[in-house]
Specification:
Elements: H1 2-31, H2 35-38, H3 52-83, H4 101-129, E1 138-145, E2 148-153, E3 158-161, E4 180-184, E5 189-195, E6 200-204, E7 209-213, E8 219-223, E9 229-235, E10 247-253, H5 255-267
Parallel strand pairs: 1-5, 4-10
Antiparallel strand pairs: 1-2, 2-3, 5-8, 6-7, 6-9, 9-10
Helix pairs in contact: 3-4
């Protein structure tokens, strides 16, 4: 009797010690996380645009929930392997179970709830990000082309035509050769996205959003840059041999600097708009090259 009585508190102490160890490891792990890790290793931070905080929150919350689900699943698998392992004293065939209704319902309902929850929050945030602004402060039209970019500043009636990234003898990119897209800080910008040839995708990495550019279709993106700085842009859709060189630079500047850059384009004679007449793909619905359009 004494040995069995003493074994119970001993087992409880082991469980308590295990809980303390797990708690200490979890606390140490979380305290050692950098700000980049806490935002899910995304290449940006809240406040870059009016959307980045929302995107980071959705992403970080999603992977934390999924990490918890994964930890519970892994824990249950390991526990089952240990608790129901075949011991040396076992003989014969273990009890055969055909089904377990409570467990099967649990494993059906919980994933369904998670999927519905992720869909609902994603749809909510996407609807807010994609919301049309009927009165943007600035309108810019972007054409993707193999393998560079054309920028039409519609509000200022000037344009800039870029070339693909240039490489030196060591295959390093000459940053100064990249097309530059200027955006005024604190102003709502409407970006019209078009393609001159094949599918492209307009991606500003730090803005945490990208949008396809499809021949014959115009997409729109509304964003308000909230932080001045220089950011990287690229094509995110495989579009041919030099896809990796389809790069550009985004400079978010003050309104005064933005006006100065627009005036510099005027001084170079780059007035007007480079429209669809320069498209390489003319076999599209509604064009003269398509007899069925």
């Amino acid at each position: 009797m004494n040995s069995s009585v003493e074994r119970v508190p001993l087992q409880k102490n082991r469980y308590r010690l295990l809980a303390v160890v797990i708690g200490a490891v979890a606390a140490l792990t979380l305290s050692g996380c950098t700000s980049q890790e806490l935002r899910g290793f995304l290449p940006s931070e809240p406040g870059v645009t009016n959307h980045t905080e929302r995107i980071i929150s959705l992403w970080a919350t999603s992977w934390i929930v999924l990490l918890i689900v994964g930890a519970i699943t892994w824990g249950l698998i390991i526990w089952a392997l240990i608790a129901y392992r075949r011991r040396a004293t076992d003989t014969g065939i273990p009890p055969q179970l055909r089904y377990n209704n409570p467990i099967e319902i649990f494993f059906t309902v919980v994933p369904l709830v998670l999927v519905i929850g992720f869909f609902a929050f994603t749809a909510r945030d996407q609807a807010l990000i994609e919301q049309v602004n009927p009165n943007p402060d600035v309108k810019i039209e972007v054409f993707g082309k193999r393998w560079a970019w054309d920028f039409n500043y519609l509000s200022e009636d000037v344009h800039f035509s870029g070339v693909q990234a240039q490489e030196d003898a060591e295959n390093l990119i000459d940053i100064n050769s990249l097309p530059i897209l200027y955006l005024p800080v604190g102003k709502t910008v409407e970006i019209e996205l078009n393609s001159r040839d094949v599918n492209h995708s307009f991606w500003i990495l730090d803005f945490l959003y990208k949008k396809d550019m499809i021949p014959g279709k115009t997409n729109h993106w509304y964003v308000t840059p909230e932080k001045e700085g220089t950011f990287r842009g690229k094509c995110a859709e495989l579009c041919g041999e030099y896809h990796s060189l389809m790069l550009f630079t985004v400079k978010v500047v003050s309104e005064a600097e933005y006006n100065t850059q627009m005036q510099a384009l005027r001084d170079q004679g780059l007035t007007g708009r480079l429209g669809a007449e320069y498209n390489a793909n003319n076999v599209l619905p509604g064009t003269d090259g398509n007899t069925e359009g």
